[in-house]
Amino acid sequence: MTDRNGNGQRMDCHVDRIEFSGDRGDAEGAETLVLRISGMGCVNCANRVHNALITQRGVLEVTVNHETGSARLVFDPDRFSTLAIVRAVAGAGDERHNYRIIA
């Protein structure tokens, strides 16, 4: 049996959201991209995806919402790699969590 916290979330599934303060790129000329992501069922899933995206080169800001299945990225187009983002989202999962960009 899995223990649950006061919010009904699985305790063994908890993931803290990280804030990344490294050199992410230049905010001047930044662009925005909205992704649809499948597989997120709770706030911990959103935190996993957020953590994978915020550490990618050129990503300046990330907002992930598990309820809408979306992620909004603000990025420096000169330092941004679409392939790295696709891999980061897929790599955020584990044996119980399978995340994919769907649009």
What does this molecule look like?
With 103 residues, the protein is an alpha+beta fold. It has a domain at 30-101: Alpha-Beta Plaits, CATH 3.30.70.100. The protein is 21% helix and 22% strand. It has 2 helices and 4 strands. Strands 2-3-1-4 form a 4-stranded antiparallel β-sheet. The protein is globular, with a radius of gyration of 14 Å.
Q: What Rg, in angstroms, do the CA atoms define? A: 14 Å
Strand content: 15-25%
Q: What's the count of strands?
A: 4
Measure the end-to-end span: 36 Å
Which overall shape is indicated by the principal axes computed on the Cα atoms?
globular
Order of helices and strands: EHEEHE
What portion of residues is helical?
10-25%
Task: Name its key features.
103 residues, alpha+beta, Alpha-Beta Plaits, 4-stranded antiparallel β-sheet, disordered N terminus
